[in-house]
Amino acid sequence: MSKRWNVYVTREIPKPALDMLAQYCDMEVNPEDCVLKREVLLEKVQGRDGVLCLLTDRIDKEVLDAARDAVIFSNYAVGFDNIDVEYASTRGILISNTPGVLTEATAEMAWALLFAVARRVVESDRYNREGKFNGWGPLHFLGQNVTGKTLGVIGVGRIGTSFAKKAQGFEMKILYSNTRVNADFEAQTGGKYVDLDTLLQESDFISLHVPLSPKTKHLISGRELKLMKKSAILINTSRGPVVDEKALVKALKEGEIWGAGLDVYEKEPEIAPGLAELNNVVMCPHIASATEETRTKMGMMAVENLLAGLGGKIPPNCLNP
Ligand code: DGY
User: Fold this and answer.
1) Boundaries of each D-isomer specific 2-hydroxyacid dehydrogenase NAD-binding domain copy (predicted)?
2) Best mutation site among 289, 294, 301 for ligand 1, i.e. most ligand atoms within 8 A of its Cβ?
């Protein structure tokens, strides 16, 4: 009988993925549907051949050192700012992620937020539930048209491109800002490359699709928010710290911009003081990839990566340089 690996899974993921893992591994899954406490994570990685972890687990030097026997940490996410890949590489530990399978779900969520804010969907739903609807009113819940407007896309990787492609039906002009000109994006969307300040000044809707790195931390702060139109709507489905949340609360409160749609937060799961009191923000709890199909695909991909690494192969979605 071939060796069964000893694996830890830091939180329950969709069943088909766990079933596949169980065929090859003796595994322990965090039984609580909550983020693992730091001390538990440090204890549970010990003696494991591999770990399937989440974006909510901080996989830093301390954890990687505690996981003395691990050959791989397979992240159940496309983003990997939670992992010290550089240090893992020095220790010879493989790191992998789940790119591609959540592109469409995340792009769809950015549109869901854009429409929810532009057409005040959540605010008016709340109004109805509170029994306040007393008939059609010419001035009730005036929002903003989307068709024909200018869409600013910051970061045009897989998700930014998919998001922009979906704008076609709304006859929008597309501006984009990126680390470099992206001819493929332009061919697919008709988007025009501009510098960040021009994008901020000219766009009606601005959507963030950059990974979190020291370069993108607080990419949108007080200065950038001031450059935006007073009617602008900001959408963030990337990572919370890309936006300076304190500056955002101020901009939303003081009408520097019109609204925001957020799926991610600077200090998740905390939400910046003041944000929840504002009607011009729609806030979802980091669910952009949360569809049945997508989360299952992410699970299968994370397991495939894990099994490849355990079997001595380079995983298909390896992040080590
Ligand atoms: C990711 O995968 O990075 C998303 O933020 C969660 O699905």
Assistant:
1) 112-288
2) 289
